């Protein structure tokens, strides 16, 4: 018997509800087909699905703008955003896999790929925007992706070793007493919090001139620093068997998977497409003015 989430146990007959901590925001349905409950799954699926619908609704116009501008940077990140968003939506939809007999390996693999795609975006955005020299944007982007890929590849390899080599259930909501899981996640979030904290330290110090002047980027870093710090705190509490730590960690996971990609889009991509609309309107206005459409206004 394998205990998952502290509230459900898996037997040969399937998931069976057991006694344990009853998280009010994660429990609605007592169905044996649900791991967390209706509200938990809705909080994950609904924002992720709406974001995909939003991207799809604007996909045609955005692709035209990308083709018009021919920005290798935006093309690369727009493609990565779509890839990560689709993987994340699949992860949100298939929550039941983590407490379904025979689906544990598939759930672990899906979780690995979904979280790695989002982490790749997170690291590469920071690495790219911290650079000052864009002499060759395509070359800079390729170098950024290569470095980010090395970090994410190492992270992926370590997670595989812990999960399949040492049996650490990183992506299953196991009982709070599993110290191995919380040790891994605490170290992971400590590194991310340290990286964001270092950027903020330099930005608000006398050495801030060494960093590129991008206000939106530093607002993003502040939000990510606060988020990773909260998750770090939650992992620490969970590691010492505090029930609030597990609740806070689960809440942070829901917020990350449902809100991070829309937040990334609004911060770094939305203005690009809006700016293109303005540029196109200006171009049309110039063409009409050259053709004499507005001559009557001056008579």
UniProtKB/TrEMBL annotation:
Q: Which UniProt keywords apply?
A: Membrane, Transmembrane, Transmembrane helix
The protein's location, in the record's own words, is: Membrane
Q: Which Pfam families match?
A: Tmemb_40
Topology term for the membrane: Multi-pass membrane protein
- Transmembrane ranges, per UniProt, are 38-57, 77-97, 109-130, 142-166, 186-205, 217-240, 246-270
| Gene Ontology CC, one term | plasma membrane
Q: Which PANTHER family match?
A: TRANSMEMBRANE PROTEIN ADIPOCYTE-ASSOCIATED 1 (PTHR15876)
- Name this polypeptide is given: Transmembrane protein adipocyte-associated 1 homolog
